[in-house]
Design goal:
globular, mainly alpha, two-stranded antiparallel ribbon, single chain
């Protein structure tokens, strides 16, 4: 068997990779460059003319109180969503590992929700959380006026946080189950012989050993909460009530496509991209330091 594959034609690798490169260039690089260009220009509402203003759009957005309100909402949403998704996935992975015989069935059941798109989940939960006809409407029959997410911002935030966590739990569950199963059985057996309960083994042995995986899923969830939570907010709350769920990704859409402020939304897009790059950089630096310590 050959050690490496060889193509007969010189241009065959480029021909095979061209469709993927073309899609990436068309749907990622070109919009990014266009957004960067617009962020330094004052663009007409429909994009047919522009005037160079330098960093004026960035200064305008950074002076806008609505930007900081949206940034704070994003921070609350991301921290609560990531903490809830990672915490629930960790508990589920631990319980599955405790019950090896029935764990296979639960592993498959918990992975399936990962295939549901965010917009589809948003539509389903919007009906389920309806205070009149939804499942949550039962609370209003017990305590009239208790469940009103269209009026109470904290309830609307709790709704989208729960929806986001539900979408992330399957991925976190897969990674954490694999991490727990990779722990040498000798460690757990020695702790059990010393009289450690399953809870003490989980706290003192399992969690410290899977700390890199916990940090990985937390970082991935954080990036996803910043960039890919638009569908949930759009289908569930549209940023309301009163901007209580107006996260940065939805504000960019609302300013650009509804308010036709192409320049300001482009500047916000670049700021959002910098936040994502910073999160990725922290993840890579921390992972590299962890690898050096283990060596």
């Amino acid at each position: 068997m050959k050690a490496s594959a060889r193509f007969h034609g010189r241009w065959t690798p480029f021909a095979l990779g061209f469709p993927q490169l073309a899609l990436v260039a068309l749907f990622f690089y070109w919009p990014t460059l266009k957004g960067l260009w617009w962020s330094f220009h004052l663009v007409c509402p429909f994009g047919h003319c522009s005037t160079f203003v330098g960093t004026g759009n960035y200064v305008r957005e950074l002076k806008d109180p609505a930007f900081y309100a949206s940034l704070g909402t994003t921070a609350i949403f991301s921290s609560l969503g990531v903490g809830l998704s990672v915490g629930i996935a960790l508990c589920l992975a631990w319980m599955v590992e405790l019950h090896q015989r029935s764990g296979k069935v639960f592993r498959y059941l918990l992975i399936w929700p990962y295939a549901v798109a965010g917009s589809v989940l948003g539509v389903i939960l919007r009906v389920a959380a309806n205070p009149t006809i939804g499942v949550m409407g039962y609370l209003n029959s017990l305590w009239p006026g208790f469940w009103q997410p269209h009026l109470i911002g904290a309830q609307a935030m709790a709704m989208i946080v729960g929806a986001f966590a539900w979408t992330q739990i399957p991925f976190n569950f897969i990674v954490l189950v694999a991490a727990l199963r990779a722990i040498p059985g000798d460690y757990m057996a020695a702790a059990a012989m010393d009289g450690a309960t399953p809870w003490r083994r989980f706290i003192d042995i399992q969690i410290p050993l899977i700390r890199p995986q916990l940090f990985f899923v937390g970082t991935m969830n954080l990036i996803d909460s910043i960039t890919n939570s638009f569908a949930l907010v759009d289908t569930l709350t549209q940023g309301g009530p009163g901007g209580a769920t107006d996260i940065l990704a939805y504000k960019i859409y609302r300013d650009g496509f509804i308010g036709l402020d192409l320049s300001g939304s482009s500047a916000l897009s670049m700021i959002l991209m910098l936040l994502v790059l910073a999160a990725c950089a922290v993840q890579f630096i921390t992972a590299e330091r962890q690898a050096r310590r283990e060596v």
